[in-house]
Amino acid sequence: MSAKIKTFQFLVEGGKASAGPPIGPSLGPLGVNVLEVVKKINELTKDFAGMRVPVKVDVDVEKKTFNVEIGTPTTAALIIKELKVEKGSSQAGKSFMGNLPLETVIKIAKLKMNDIGAKTLKSAVKSVVGTCQSMGVKVENKTPKEFIKELEMGIYDHVILKYEIEGESK
Fold it and tell me: pLDDT tens-digit profile of 25-58?
């Protein structure tokens, strides 16, 4: 007889999940220890405090066991966290509300690589810079369009390669 697994998806604030709605009412009737699930979610999401994090909980209904997987916050949320602002520019492309160094863009790109389906770190960086464009955020004190032109010319390849090599050696 195969195990019956029920899957639930929630959007929770990093490190602040509770046994209240939506988690408690969804999982409580299955007989799983909701407080243990909440504790595990908070442990896994504590690094994303202040951001909404996608969480997937698989419950084995027969054994009353669970598995928690977390996703990553949106690229925009990660950019906002790095800039320590509340939101992007209301006139993206005309007014800029922040500037990110390339290293920070690479850090976000590495976090989001699987989610955005990027095959290379360079393409993930390009995707993050695209989000910067729509939020009114400069990269390396350049407009995102200027930065992407330089990125495509290979100006930043040596920096990106350094981060790719570091990631493989860890």
Answer: 999 999 999 999 999 999 999 988 888 899 999 9
Which uninterrupted H or E stretch holds 137? strand 137-139
Do the strands 52-60 and 65-70 form a parallel or antiparallel pair, or are they unpaired?
A: antiparallel
* Phi, psi of 55, deg, nearest 5: -130, 135
Return d(Cα 110, Cα 108) in angstroms, integer.
5
Domain stop point among 70, 86, 109: 70
Retrieve residue 103's tokens. 């290293």
Are 51 and 66 contained in the same domain? yes
Q: What is the pLDDT of residues 5-22, one digit of tens each?
A: 999 999 999 999 999 999
In tens, the pLDDT along 79-113 reads 999 999 888 878 887 889 999 999 999 999 999 99
CATH number at 26 reads 3.30.1550.10
Q: Which of 37, 70, 103 is the last residue of a domain?
A: 70
68 φ, ψ (degrees, to nearest 5): -115, 130
Residue 39: give the domain boundaries: 5-70
| The total number of structural domains that make up the chain | 2
What's the confidence (pLDDT) of residue 95?
87
